[in-house]
Amino acid sequence: MPLPRFNPAPLVPEIARFGPPAPPDPNNPMTRVLIVDDKEDNLDYLRSLLSAHGCTVDSAHDGAEALAQARSSPPDLVVSDLLMPVMDGYTLLRHWKADARLHQVPFIVFTATYTDPDDERLALNLGADAFILKHAEPEHLIARLREVQTNAVAPSPVPPRVAVQDENTRLKLYSEVLVRKLEERTQQLATANRDLRQKLAERKIADEKIRVLAESQMAILNALPAHIALVDPEGVILSVNEAWRRFALANVLQSPDFCVGQNYLKVCEQAVGDCSSEAQAIATGIRRVLRGGQKEFVIEYPCHSPDEQRWFRLMVTPLQEERLAGAVIMHVNITERKRDESELRLAERAARESEARLGFALAAADVGDWSLDLRTNVAHRSLRHDQCFGYREAVPQWGYDTFLAHIQPADRDRVAACFKTAMAGQGEYDAEFRTTWPDASVHWLWTKGRFYFDETGDPYRVAGIVSDITARKQAELALLESEARHRQISAQLAKVLDS
Predict the structure, then answer these.
(1) Which of 92, 187, 256, 268 could link 63 by a cystine bridge, Cβ 3.0 to 4.6 Å?
(2) Is residue 242 within a helix (H) or strand (E), and if so which, with residue range?
(3) How much is the pLDDT for 56?
(4) If DSSP codes are grouped into helix, strand and coil, which group holds residue 462?
């Protein structure tokens, strides 16, 4: 059962008892608060309440206006409604948490329309710091705002880029919440119509209910950035939102038939050209949903214009699953995500090519490479690395202790000290040591690499290269022995000449 519409007027006496607006308090963490709501009464209520607690209050009537204000002058806290035109609260929240300057500013959802637990879960998943219903008492609201601001005093690290799969999950939840709200409003409208037929004496009241519900339904549709159409069981377009109209106007030459009264299925089936195959698949999927054959239909498709390449995600869900009452068709622009995926594929390809070039260079230089995760003690090595320690095949397990165990005792402490110095902050290490192969032969190895440290200064990974320098060491030893013999001969000759 939805809560009654929020009316701030009865709360004015409650606010008045707080006294006149207090001057801004420099020690108050909520000194500058941005409030966002498309209803002036709600803005006045919040402005009076917050001013009485020493806050400087800025206001905006929709998400786009709020985002522009905040980017120009970030507030200490934002309190936003969800159902607004131009840009709704959910979309504002997504942009807010993705902005490098704003993501640490606490975001409070303050709503009277979105009251379902799924609505709250979606807001919190998108990064909201609190979800408060507008029917909360003034003292409770102020206490929650202060609690959120106190918890946000310690700066948090920049959040990682959201993976594509996570973004798709949130988008699906976002769509489900909005479609559910639309279904609720549609059901309420149907109930109001039945009441109207049953209670002719209350026609005026019933008409007002229908008007309010219809406005609310259209407000929800127009608040969405997605292009949305409602179709009847035959596929005829009954209603479209503002985003759909704007897109149709901007692309009138490409899609003149996608308007109210046209049959969406027939337009798709009659499509020709590059996108005709996708259009046929879309018509088939929508028809299955309309006939109750499947609960939803989702497809991603290209829709390029002469000026840019674009991709969209189409989602179709029934208006009412228990009976065939039509469907909601939603197109979401996913061009940015597709570009990110393309850039990621290019980056992965470049990384693979770079890794291949590095492997070729190391193989040509007869050098083995290795890395060790210091947190898991899991090592990754090339075959040449293990061959430097006398193994023909790769050893099943390798770690730092294994590495030290392969060093001759006379050299082990020196190499361990070298690694310890590098781990303590120097970063790089360079060491030569002797190792005994499984066939009992002694070989000289050279290793060089560096430690990698996290943001707290703790080492988490070490990587490097290793090479067999036995031949070089033998040559150096032979040279030293030759020089010693020459010095001995020279000394003997000097004695002969002196005598």
Answers:
(1) 92
(2) helix 242-250
(3) 94
(4) strand
- For 433, the enclosing helix (H) or strand (E) is strand 428-436
Asked if 314 and 299 touch (Cβ cutoff 8 Å), the reply is yes
Residue 144's nearest CA partner among 136, 135, 154 is 136
Question: Is the pTM of the predicted complex or chain greater than 0.70?
Answer: no
- C-alpha span between 296 and 184 (Å, rounded): 18
| CATH architecture type of domain 9-156 | 3-Layer(aba) Sandwich (3.40)
Neighbours of 345 (CB within 10 A): 10
Parallel, antiparallel or unpaired: strands 459-468 and 442-453: antiparallel
Residues 6+ apart with CB under 8 A from 163: none
148 phi and psi angles, rounded to 5 deg: -65, -45
Q: For the chain, report the end-to-end CA distance as a whole number of angstroms.
A: 122
Start and end residues for every CATH 3.40.50.2300 domain found in the chain: 9-156
| CA-based nearest residue to 227, from 242, 238, 214, 249 | 242
- The label of the residue with tokens 């068709």 reads 329
Q: Is 60 helix (H, G, I), strand (E, B) or coil?
A: strand
Nearest Cα to Cα of residue 142 among 30, 32, 16, 3: 30
Within the chain, what is the greatest distance between any pair of CA atoms?
Answer: 145
pLDDT of 42-92, one tens digit each?
A: 999 999 999 999 999 999 999 999 999 999 999 999 999 998 989 999 999
CA distance 87 to 78: 15
Each residue's pLDDT tens digit, 122-152: 999 999 999 999 888 999 999 999 999 888 7
Domain limits, CATH 3.30.450.20, in the chain: 167-333, 365-468
Fold for domain 167-333? Beta-Lactamase (3.30.450)
Q: Retrieve residue 309's tokens.
A: 């390449």
Do 282 and 253 form a contact (C-beta atoms < 8 A)?
A: no
Q: How many other C-beta atoms lie within 10 A of the C-beta of residue 262? A: 16
Q: Residues 38-53, buried b or exposed e (16+ Cβ, 10 A)?
A: beeebbbbbbbbbbbb
Look at strands 297-302 and 459-468 and give their pairing: unpaired
